[in-house]
Specification:
By secondary structure, the chain is an alpha+beta fold. The chain folds into three domains: 21-77, no CATH class; 90-119; 123-231, Nuclear Transport Factor 2, Chain: A, CATH 3.10.450.100. The protein has ten helices and four strands; from the N terminus they run αααααααααββββα. A four-stranded antiparallel β-sheet has the order 1-2-3-4.
Length: 251
């Protein structure tokens, strides 16, 4: 028993000495050589008879008792502190919160990117800037930027501008447009927006705009009665009478 303790103490001192300093490259090379020498020595060591035949019950029981005593002696001399350390708990908490935050950021990025790629713009936004340009009488921009490709082909810029200006001359310029109803059919990418349009100071009439989407951009495909108020029931302006020549001019 005393010999075994001496061997254990010697091993502990060797381990402590090895841990106290960093091994040099030379020591590592020597350790590899020594390891090979030990392996060769182990191969040359003859096996005990009980190793070949197996030990009997009495020897095995004695060995188990000896190992149990050694374990109990080690636990008494080097008790293990099973209490959780504050640093470990704090580190676990920090790692958990960090991992949760990273996962949440990744999930938010993926969802936001998917919505950005798949979401369609609001047709009311396109109609809003359309009416802003109409009230400022910027009809060239209206034609080139807010009409659908099909409607732009059907009406050239000069013809469109001339028609819009003629409506302003006959009924007064558009001063306001209020959205009253919006209906979007996502199956065929068509939106219908109803407005109450004011021309001048008092003339109001309903207008229905039809928008279609092309390359993820809404464009107006039908202007309704925007520049033809008479289609919405607004009386056409009376033609200015031509003055007849007076009798003096006739003489």
């Amino acid at each position: 028993m005393v010999g075994e303790r001496r061997v254990r103490d010697l091993n502990r001192r060797r381990i402590a000495k090895a841990k106290s300093h960093k091994a040099s490259p030379r020591e590592l090379r020597e350790a590899k050589v020594r390891l090979k020498e030990i392996e060769e020595e182990l191969r040359s060591v003859p096996l005990a008879p009980e190793t070949k035949r197996g030990e009997d019950r009495a020897r095995r029981y004695t060995r188990i008792l000896r190992l149990r005593a050694l374990r109990e002696d080690f636990e008494q001399r080097f008790p293990y502190d099973k209490r959780p350390h504050a640093n470990s708990l704090l580190l676990s908490l920090v790692m958990f919160v960090s991992a949760f935050a990273v996962c949440a950021c990744l999930a938010g990025t993926v969802v936001g990117g998917y919505n950005l790629l798949t979401a369609k713009p609001d047709p009311a936004g396109t109609a809003g800037v359309f009416w802003d340009s109409v009230t400022s009488q910027d009809y060239a921009t209206v034609h080139d930027s807010y009409l659908s490709p099909t409607l732009r082909v059907q009406q050239k810029t000069d013809t469109f501008v001339l028609t819009a200006r003629q409506a302003d001359s006959d009924y007064g310029p558009i001063t306001n447009a209020t959205l009253t109803k919006k209906q979007v059919n996502s199956s065929n990418d068509v939106a219908t927006l109803n407005y109450t349009v004011t021309r001048g100071t008092s003339t109001t009439y309903p207008v229905t705009l039809t928008l279609t989407i092309f390359n993820n951009v809404w464009g107006i495909s039908n202007l309704g009665a925007t520049f033809q108020p008479n289609q919405a029931g607004v009386p056409a302006p009376s033609p200015t009478p031509t003055p007849s020549p007076t009798a003096t001019q006739a003489g």
